[in-house]
Design a protein that fits this description.
Number of helices: 2
Radius of gyration: 20 Å
Distance between the termini: 21 Å
Oligomer: single chain
Number of strands: 0
Strand content: under 5%
Structural class: mainly alpha
Length: 84
Amino acid sequence: QGDRVASLRRYAAVDRDLAGALAEPGGAPEGVVAPEHRVALAEVAAATEEMERRLGAADEALGRVLAERDARDRGGKSVVHRTP
């Protein structure tokens, strides 16, 4: 699961870079984005920062859960879950 979070963080970084490139003159070809769907670069940057923040928090939470589980397992208290 941690690999997925890291991958999503990379996608967020790429989205930010892409938004920056498209905001430059000549970045987005005319007609590619409908006028009603255009957003300001600041909006994209803010959304990307929020995604990165949330993914970072998810990564930290996952790390804590895995660390707690590992500590419990080392104490001989592992739980075996049934699968359907």
